[in-house]
Amino acid sequence: MLFSELGLGPDVLRAIEDKGYTQPTPIQEQAIPCVLQRRDVLGCAQTGTGKTASFTLPMISILASGRARARMPRSLILEPTRELAAQVSESFETYGKYHKLSMALLIGGETFTEQVKKLDRGVDVLIATPGRLIDLFERGNIMLNDIKVFVIDEADRMLDMGFIPDIERIVSKLPKSRQTLFFSATMPPEIRRLADAFLNEPVEISVAPPASPAETVTQALSLVHEMDKRRALRHLLQTEDVKNAFIFCNRKRDIAVLQKSLERHGFNVGALHGDMVQSKRTETLERFKQGEITLLVCSDVAARGIDVQGLSHVFNFDVPLTPDDYVHRIGRTGRAGKQGRAFMLATPDDTKLVGAITRLIKREIPMIAIDGLETAEFGEEDGTSRGRGRGRGGRSARSETRPPRGDREERAPREESAPREERAAREERPVREERPVREERPMREERAAREERPVREERQPRESLAAAESRRSNEPRRGGDRDRRRRRDEDDDDVAVIGFGDHMPAFMLRSARPRPSSQTEPSQEG
Ligand code: AMP
Questions:
Q1: What is the residue range of 83's domain?
Q2: Ligand 1 first shell, C-beta below 6 A
Q3: pLDDT of amino acid 207
Q4: Are residues 104 and 202 in the same domain?
Q5: Residue 202 and residue 226 in one domain
Q6: Tens digits of per-residue pLDDT, 101-114?
Q7: What is the tally of structural domains in the chain?
Q8: Cα(24) to centroid of ligand 1, in Å?
Q9: Which of 53, 208, 271, 389 has the lowest tally of Cβ within 10 angstroms?
């Protein structure tokens, strides 16, 4: 099918041609005609499928006629992170270059003044993160009753980040007669419930099974001891043909340690996480995209949707704490038909997390050995390490399924949903990292400091992935079916801790002793 058959206007088609797209992707082929017919759309699609253009292109055609009034935007797109919001605004600029649509990007971490000025002039397209939008709404800078097209992007990510109450509030301010486009990479029941509430007889489009990793990504896993992880990473960086790479860590504090360590070893490396000031986040990402920085040590703020053309590698320095995040992280590479490579470093304590990933992606990840390093062994079914005394041994994998609350990337949205004055005061200031609830790897920083001595690394001939895979397949497999079954059964017992965001269930807020009624109802305003 051709773009010209989808019903888009000639100026949009010209911009698509300039961009060099020859054919619509499946989500574009299915969604664009429905959006142009002004139908609601429920799209189950991951980033990397061309999802952004599937709503921006028809929106430009729809909004081409008509004019925005001051403070009354004509369309609204909600994104979970500032980076994604900025990326969508770039798409509007690219595809809307032959139109005179006005656009405003409302994201946290930037001053209000410019954003308010733009709103005052009237905007056709408003792209926002939920917290900042609510702020401006409460200040009276914006009215939402002229919204004709409303887009919720990455709904499942919004759920993870505790944004759903904010979104419900925003939707309650929108006119009933609007067009709603709702996109999510996965459709858990909570997301389905929201979709049912927000959409009116939507066309349902699903372009890829949820959480299926791109076929274009070659994956590998290396099981090492905790103290060997940085050496293992350096070895991979030196032996792989790395053009540019994201290196994912689970904790923000580990990002700084790893970045410094890599810098000392001569790598060209930057860092990206949610506690950095927005100007620095934007600048770092831009420098990475421009090739001025080759490696980016990052948190999951970079895992979803961030589109860096031709990213050659993803390294999971830490095994992600939820299997979905693995899929999103490795999906940064192997995009737009290009080949990518994704490596993960696991320790014996990560046994359960790795098991959860392989169950989700329905395949084993080929194991590779790192030259010069002892390969560790997977832990016991109860989650304890049997890493020959060199791992973090004895720590329960169960206790590791979530990081300490204060250290999770989810701090970013909490920042956005904090009271208005507090948030305004914090503009351009990094969020102070809270003390982790649980004591976190007490020896780790110490070990890290010790390890900063440049380790003499003997370069050894590199083992290719294929060779490693074939060697592994000839080795006896660790743990038989029975072991795996036991591990799975045990996982079924594992109850994850759920963050309630601003929706704290009433029973948790109720005091054991009756209190005066004025104290029993805390504000929803986080
Ligand atoms: P998205 O899923 O929106 O993040 O898009 C992923 C990548 O695919 C982006 O780099 C887009 O520029 C690119 N892309 C989107 N539509 C097309 C298309 N029809 N042909 C080729 N590349 C595309």
A1: 3-206
A2: 21, 23-25, 28, 47-53, 305, 307, 335-336
A3: 86
A4: yes
A5: no
A6: 999 999 988 888 99
A7: 2
A8: 9
A9: 389
